[in-house]
Structures are given as C-alpha cells and as structure tokens.
Amino acid sequence: MKNIDIRKLPTAPPKGTDKSVSKGHLVSLRQELSELQNVFYADGRFGLLIILQGMDASGKDGVCRHVMSAMNPMGVQVTSFKKPTEAELQHDFLYRIYPHFPAKSRIRVFNRSYYEDILVPTVEGLYGKERINDRYKLINTIERHLQVNNIHVLKFFLHLSREEQAERIAERKTIQHKKWKYDHADNISDEKWDHFQETYSQLFNDCDNTPWHIIPADRRWYRNEQVAIILRDHLKGLGLEYPG
C-alpha cells in the first residue's frame, strides 16, 4: 500500500454493521481458529508472527484476549515490548526482538513491536533522519528474511479516533477494574497525536513489503471480528495438512 494517510481512513465500522451479528460471527470464527491452529501446528511447515500496533487504548490487549485466546496456548505466545531497558540500549535496536521470533508450527504475537523503535524516536526527535531511515531498511530486510524462511508476518494497526481514545482513557481513570491500565503517558498532546498519525502513515508507506491491515477500532466488537477474519483467511490460504 502506498500514499496512505491514516487521518483520512475510517475508525468506525461501515454504516449498517450490526453489533449482534458481528459478535455472533466472532464465536464461529474462534472455533475455526482453534481448528486451524491444530492443523497449523501439526503441519509444521510455517511459523506466524502477528504484529499489533495502535495508539494507547486502541485494544491490543483486547484482541489478544478475544481473538488469540481461541487458540491453544501451547502453540501461541504473546510478547509485549515496552520502553527499552538501559541494558537493551547498549545493543542494536533489534537485539531484544531476535529471541522472540516464532519457530515453525508456532504463532507469536507482538503486542507492540520493533516499530516502536521508529515511532517513538521520530516523534520525540531523538535521532536524525538518516538513522531512522536505516531502521526502516533493516525492518524491511528482516521481514523479508522471515518470509523467505516460511515465517509469515501479519501486521495489524488498530485505528482509533482521538475522541474514542479520550473516552477510554477517562474510563481507566474512573472504573475500578480498569484503573491499573492508566498511565500518565496516555495523555499525549494534540501536537504529538498528529505527529504519531503522520509517522504511522509514513511507516505504512515505507514498511509495506508485508502488507498492513488497518482495522477501524472505535468499536471493540468490529475490531475483534475483522482481525479474526483476516487471521482465519490467512491460515486457510496456507494449504495446511495433517501429516501422514
């Protein structure tokens, strides 16, 4: 995909989308995913890396809970990447990522990923353009390397509106069972919001050797259904077989 500007893309479901139908569909999709993962594991030819990116409160944890949990945890692992530690910063930016790429038969979910090492330094102005561009090239190279070695990569951006984010962050401040999620860093300025949107758009245009799936995320039920559909269709398209 080229010339993407996510500020022009919808964050809400298409008009007329029925919530109850979508939620019912997710139930059947979860059953399909459970069955497909069994074959994926037994087939043994492929690994799958799923990358979840999005602004704070866009629902990365929710996708893991409602979609990925349909599959056997013996073959699926979720890894979250927070701010690099001082020890990690002594190495190249991909150093902390390498041990977590999936093996054959396994599915690995990155809740945030190496793309944070482009997004944050760009928005915060930590590095010059040449260093950032070098990271773009390295990411493209490593994703191509994974694909050549039968490790497929599915990349999702959960596209949330500023208004919906504000509501969800307000919930984190006031609803008891959500308070643990709140972080002062969630309250980003309008200027930084715009800069993140611009940087994500650049990311989608410059790191698209494996395509991005931009998912409207203002409604949790629609977001979960759409991720599940894409994951289901990808697994079905692999021509998986039980051995023997």
What is the tally of beta strands?
A: 5
Distance between the termini: 40 Å
CATH architecture assignment: 3-Layer(aba) Sandwich
Give the strand content: 5-15%
> Strands of the biggest beta sheet: in what spatial order?
2-3-1-4-5
SSE arrangement, N to C: HEHEEHHEHHEH
Question: What is the 3D shape?
Answer: globular
Question: What is the C-level CATH assignment?
Answer: Alpha Beta
Describe this structure in a few short sentences.
By secondary structure, the protein is an alpha/beta fold.
Description of the structure:
The chain has a single domain, classed as P-loop containing nucleotide triphosphate hydrolases (Rossmann fold, 3-Layer(aba) Sandwich), CATH 3.40.50.300. With 244 residues, the protein is an alpha/beta fold. The model has no long low-confidence stretch (mean pLDDT 93). It has helices at 19-43, 60-66, 116-124, 129-148, 162-174, 190-206, 220-236, and strands at residues 47-54, 76-80, 107-111, 151-159, 212-216. The chain has a five-stranded parallel beta sheet, with helices on both faces. Helix 1 runs parallel beside helix 7 (220-236), helix 3 packs antiparallel against helix 4 (129-148) and helix 3 packs across helix 6 (190-206). It has seven helices and five strands, in the order H-E-H-E-E-H-H-E-H-H-E-H. The N and C termini lie far apart (40 Å).
Architecture blueprint of SSEs:
Blueprint: H1 19-43, E1 47-54, H2 60-66, E2 76-80, E3 107-111, H3 116-124, H4 129-148, E4 151-159, H5 162-174, H6 190-206, E5 212-216, H7 220-236
Helix pairs in contact: 1-7, 3-4, 3-6
